Amino acid sequence: MMHIEILINDTIITPPVRAAHSDVGALAEFTGFVRGEEAGRPISALVYEAYQPMAETVMRRLLTELAAAHPCNSVRVQHRIGIIRVGEAAIHIAVHAKHRAPAFALLAAFMDRLKQDVPIWKTDTFSA
Prior knowledge:
Blueprint: E1 3-9, E2 26-33, E3 37-38, E4 41-50, H1 52-69, E5 74-80, E6 82-85, E7 89-97, H2 100-117, E8 120-126
Parallel strand pairs: 1-5
Antiparallel strand pairs: 2-7, 3-4, 4-6, 4-8, 5-7
């Protein structure tokens, strides 16, 4: 059974220090940053909102489903909500696995599904 940790909050993302485990041979990570442009227009920040209980439930379900096809040891997802300025991280995902292939596959599949299935919304804050 894969260990899943999900954090949805307004805390600045700082990836945790990781201790080595004897059964982990790979760590795949993704950090998504707020770009200075959205839809061809300059922005100063994005505002993220979430229906938090449902977002956590959907994320956990997706990760459990994906782990059946891509067995991994653990995954940690941190998604910020609130105002996130350009250059700051909006999401960080860390996947630990015995081998790199399932770690990469789970991470990529989760990011694809996150955007379409999880109730988290962003609003642009356009620069003047």
